[in-house]
Amino acid sequence: MARSGTPGRLAPNGSAPAGLIASLSSMALPLEIDRGFGPGDTGARPTGVLNFCFGFQDVPFQARAERRDGRPWLTLTGDLGSLPFSIEHPRRRRRMLKVLHGAQAGTTLKWEVDQDHRMRVIGEIELGLPLTPMAVIAGAATLLVHCRPYIDLVVKVANED
């Protein structure tokens, strides 16, 4: 049977090229997100780090999955916005600081205000092996479950008039 088309592309009839199917069969499962796909691959990402962003409860998060001493870790950093200045919104500032203080005492996550008055929440969790997309999502969900009530309060206080 003659082969037509560009290598790696679907044939006009919608079928996958034989070479593609053969290469899929050589992959070791489960596919880890920081590893290469073929036998003997040293890694798909030269840094071994996966960075991505997502939103949760109107808060933008940055996520970083990486291996430390051979174990996968996930770090989430949420940007909670700017702490209101006391001259503009003294009541809102007091309430926001009270929420952040309560969050610091009530969770294992780090709640901070930097020099530029930006509020952040940072959490880390060790992920199980293998480092799959499902493990990353489960780790992120686990961290967010612990801080969701405080994130809800931060968003509510930030939107007060």
Describe the model.
With 161 residues, the protein is of the alpha+beta class. The protein has helices at residues 18-25, 90-106, 133-158; strands at 50-56, 59-68, 71-82, 110-113, 118-126. It contains three helices and five strands; from the N terminus they run H-E-E-E-H-E-E-H. It has a five-stranded antiparallel β-sheet. Helix 2 (90-106) runs antiparallel to helix 3. The radius of gyration is 22 Å and the shape is elongated. Mean pLDDT is 80; it is low at 42-46.
Anisotropy-based shape: elongated
Structural class: alpha+beta
Task: Flag low-confidence runs.
Answer: 42-46
Q: What is the name of the CATH topology?
A: Yope Regulator, Chain: A
Q: What oligomeric state do the depicted chains represent?
A: single chain
Q: For the terminal residues, how far apart are their CA atoms?
A: 72 Å
Share in β-strands:
25-35%
Give a summary of the structure in a few sentences:
With 161 residues, the chain is an alpha+beta fold. It has helices spanning 18-25, 90-106, 133-158, and strands spanning 50-56, 59-68, 71-82, 110-113, 118-126. The longest helix has 26 residues, at 133-158.
How do the helices and strands line up, and which of them pair or pack?
Elements: H1 18-25, E1 50-56, E2 59-68, E3 71-82, H2 90-106, E4 110-113, E5 118-126, H3 133-158
Antiparallel strand pairs: 1-2, 2-3, 3-5, 4-5
